[in-house]
Model the fold of this input.
Amino acid sequence: MCVPVALPSCCFSNLTAIQAKEKRFASGAWTGYYTLNGKRKDLQMDLQFTPYNKAVAGNGSDDFGFFSIAGEFSPTPPYNAKFMRSDFGQGGKSMECTGFRESDQGGIFGTWKGTQGSGDFHIKPAAGDEGNCAASIIEFP
Done:
């Protein structure tokens, strides 16, 4: 779900340029997997990417339950992302995730590490999700 926000008009030209040119990090439904002890674990998330402050936030679920995401990303080269995944319950386990945007499909490849180990991950916009949220969250008077 997109939440309208109002920003000063000085931000308009920078945001629209980033959003029109860089749809590399689309807000909305994302899906993917991570590896744990050599096994693939599927997950679903709802992520919000905010270009003007380079923040990413959201929540999701997998076989272990629900979690939140908070971190940052680079909407311009080198298109990196770094965020923390914090599990609800489970003794408050967390994962530090670091990745990069793959060249042409809008997904993020990376690695994670945490108290339960480490592994790889790959997430991408969910099939059928237009990812238009990032282009439509800004409203100006």
Remarks:
- Residues 9-136 form a domain with the Lipocalin fold (CATH 2.40.128.120).
- Residues 18 and 75 are 7 Å apart (CA to CA).
- The chain has one domain: 9-136.
